[in-house]
Amino acid sequence: MLPPPLCGRSSKFYLTIYLACVIILTVLAILKTLHMIPSWFMFGKIYSYINPLVIIESLALFLLFTKFEFKNKAINFIAASTFAVFLLHSNPNIAKPYFAPLINNTYQSYDGIACLSIIFAILVIIFFLAVITDQIRIWLGSCIWKKIHNTSQ
């Protein structure tokens, strides 16, 4: 259960907070890219997880989605594995040796829309492979759990 100051807000409130943070971060990134703000400002960590705006933005997006109830089997099937996808893509032992060279080679071999399309396709394929792998893990875990539970009775 969310604390009272957070649970009484509408989804429009959380959406407004989220969009405000997105706009502020985008403007800061553009200004920094155009060298209109000092290079030391935010030390190159505009989109870092320790940036307070990113934390507020993430919290607002999370709280926005707590207002929805999804009864779609496909969404719930994929949602059950999103944490596994996060762990896979954020693991430096997998991301650096496998994903980074793949994306770099694509970036160097193609340009424009072709590059973006191929990278998007690669990311979608990786996402669904991670979901399928995690669903197999969930299924195996439930089989093992049933075996353990049945033998203990």
The span between the termini is 35 Å
- Strand segment tally: 0
**Overall form:** extended
Major sheet characteristics = none
| Main structural class | mainly alpha
Gyration radius, in Å: 21 Å
Total tally of structural domains: 2
Mean pLDDT, all residues: 85
Question: From N to C, what is the helix and strand string?
Answer: HHHHHHH
Strand percentage lies at under 5%
Q: Which segments are poorly predicted (pLDDT under 50) over 5 or more consecutive residues?
A: none
**Can you count the helices?**
7
Q: Tell me roughly what share of residues is in helical segments.
A: over 70%
Give the topology, please.
Elements: H1 4-7, H2 11-33, H3 52-65, H4 73-79, H5 82-90, H6 92-109, H7 112-151
Helix pairs in contact: 2-3, 5-7, 6-7
Q: What distinguishing features does this structure have?
A:
single chain, about 150 residues, mainly alpha, 2 domains, about 75% helix
